[in-house]
């Protein structure tokens, strides 16, 4: 077991986390805004990085904040004086999230033309800002979320459904706040930093339609499994009987500005710089990695083998860094997350390779419904437990890595810019 390479992989990941610090990003942007022109300032939002973003807002605005409320994931907290944090469940929404969202909506609707609504949105905001559309219950939205997560739908598809089953997503929070000025700061965990997808775009124009949502349902064969009220709403919306989410070009967005203040690319750049400083020949593969987790992991393992055998695309000692958000197609009833499954699948293909380490973790500090951020493995991992394929088949990566001591544990990081994958091949001199 190569303990040095493992420690260096964690060091590189920790540097990526520092680059994703939402407090620094939010404070830097807020310092550019003239707040004196507003009568009142409301700070609203949701996401795993909400506590850190709110802390930055308080440092800049202090007592000028009229009222503030953000929904955050359980345990992702900070000491605040002017902004309230409502803890809620993630990734499946709960009643606490609904209660917080009702209050956020009420604050937005109470803002006037001379006021500012500062929205702080980060990854996880979709689940943490649940406000079901009329006729839809929370339990029905939870069931739809479970179906989408299990079928392998990507974040764009999942959020298209979420927006059309919600009263607040897909630009509808901006509509509630009109005619106030809306300044939305976004910490992106989405490939390509699509404004309409980050947190399901509560303040961004939504180009997707009810017809798009219905097509996703058909694509994955979910129609017969959807709750009746959900299926009926999508059908009525596709027929034009229910108002669409606000679209690009809607005049309400003339007083709305959405700004991405941090994302996966910045984290990868910092990770690559750290790796280079440690003596590795470094390559940032991509910040747009997506697809089935196992397939993506095998591709990374193939790159590691190519580096060992031919010195391409980088000669050893090499550090290959990538990021994005893959999907897991559930086949079994095990416990794990996409990062742990990524490492388990890659571990099978790098078995026997000396001086090779694969590391993958979520920048939010959690991976799926577990207390781990991810996992780490090397060429000797399979020798320590040869049953990797069986664990992979039942999606039980957590229970594979836990006895080996190879889970990556960070605790809540109060940020979220998607996942970071690190391959280290060959030890630096």
Distance between the termini: 18 Å
* Overall SS class: alpha/beta
SSE series: HHEHEEHEHHHHEHHEHEHEHEEHHHEE
**Gross geometry:** globular
Unreliable spans are none
User: How does CATH name the architecture of the largest domain?
Assistant: 3-Layer(aba) Sandwich
> Under the CATH scheme, which class of the largest domain?
Alpha Beta
The neighbouring-strand order within the major sheet is 3-2-1-4-5-6
The domain count comes to: 2
| Helix content class | 25-40%
- CATH homologous superfamily of the largest domain, by name? Glycerate kinase, MOFRL-like N-terminal domain
Number of helices: 16
* Sheet with most strands: 6 strands, parallel
Average pLDDT for all residues: 96
Radius of gyration: 22 Å
Quick overview:
By secondary structure, this protein is of the alpha/beta class. Helix content is 39%, strand content 18%.
List key phrases describing it.
429 residues, alpha/beta, Rossmann fold, glycerate kinase, domain 1, 2 domains, six-stranded parallel sheet, six-stranded mixed sheet, 16 helices, 12 strands, 39% helix, globular
Report on this structure.
By secondary structure, the chain is of the alpha/beta class. The protein is built from 16 helices and twelve strands. It folds into two domains: 22-131 and 166-208 and 245-262, Rossmann fold, CATH 3.40.50.10180; 265-425, MOFRL domain (glycerate kinase, domain 1). The strands form two sheets. It has a six-stranded parallel β-sheet with strand order 3-2-1-4-5-6, sandwiched between helices. It has a six-stranded mixed β-sheet with strand order 7-8-12-9-10-11, with helices on both faces. Helix 12 links the parallel strand 7 (281-289) and strand 8. It is globular.
């Amino acid at each position: 077991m190569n303990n040095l390479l493992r420690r260096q992989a964690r060091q590189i990941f920790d540097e990526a986390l520092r680059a994703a610090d939402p407090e620094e990003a939010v404070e830097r942007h807020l310092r550019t805004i003239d707040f004196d022109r507003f009568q009142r300032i409301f700070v609203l939002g949701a996401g795993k990085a909400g506590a850190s973003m709110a802390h930055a807002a308080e440092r800049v605005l202090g007592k000028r904040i009229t009222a503030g409320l953000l929904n955050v994931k359980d345990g992702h907290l900070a000491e605040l004086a002017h902004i309230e944090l409502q803890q809620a469940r993630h990734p499946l929404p709960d009643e606490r999230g609904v209660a917080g969202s009702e209050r956020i909506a009420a604050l937005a609707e109470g803002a006037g033309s001379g006021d500012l609504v500062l929205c702080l949105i980060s990854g996880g905001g979709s689940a943490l800002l649940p406000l079901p559309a009329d006729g839809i219950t929370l339990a029905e939205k939870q069931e739809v979320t479970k179906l989408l997560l299990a079928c392998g739908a990507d974040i764009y598809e999942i959020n298209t459904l979420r927006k059309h089953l919600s009263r607040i997503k897909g630009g509808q929070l901006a509509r509630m706040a009109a005619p106030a000025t809306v300044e939305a700061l976004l910490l992106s965990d989405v490939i390509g930093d699509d404004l309409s997808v980050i947190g399901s775009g509560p303040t961004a124009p939504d180009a997707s339609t009810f017809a798009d949502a219905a097509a996703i349902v058909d694509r994955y064969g979910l129609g017969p499994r959807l709750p009746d009220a959900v299926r009926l709403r999508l059908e009525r919306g596709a027929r034009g009987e229910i108002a669409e989410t606000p679209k690009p070009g809607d005049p309400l967005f003339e007083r709305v500005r959405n700004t991405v203040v941090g994302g996966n690319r910045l984290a990868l750049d910092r990770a690559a710089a750290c790796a280079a400083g440690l003596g590795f020949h470094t390559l940032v593969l991509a910040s747009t990695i997506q697809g089935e987790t196992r397939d993506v992991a095998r591709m990374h393992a193939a790159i590691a083998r190519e580096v060992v055998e031919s010195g391409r695309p980088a000669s050893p000692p090499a550090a290959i860094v990538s990021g994005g958000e893959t999907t897991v197609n559930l086949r079994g009833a095990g416990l794990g997350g996409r990062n742990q499954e990524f490492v388990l699948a890659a571990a099978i293909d790098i078995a026997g390779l000396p001086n090779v380490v694969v590391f993958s973790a979520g920048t939010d500090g959690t991976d799926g419904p577990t207390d781990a951020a991810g996992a780490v493995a090397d060429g000797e991992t399979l020798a320590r437990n040869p049953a990797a394929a069986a664990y992979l088949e039942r999606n039980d990566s957590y229970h594979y890595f836990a006895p080996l001591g190879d889970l990556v544990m960070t605790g809540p990081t109060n940020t979220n810019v998607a996942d970071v994958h690190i391959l280290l091949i060959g030890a630096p001199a």
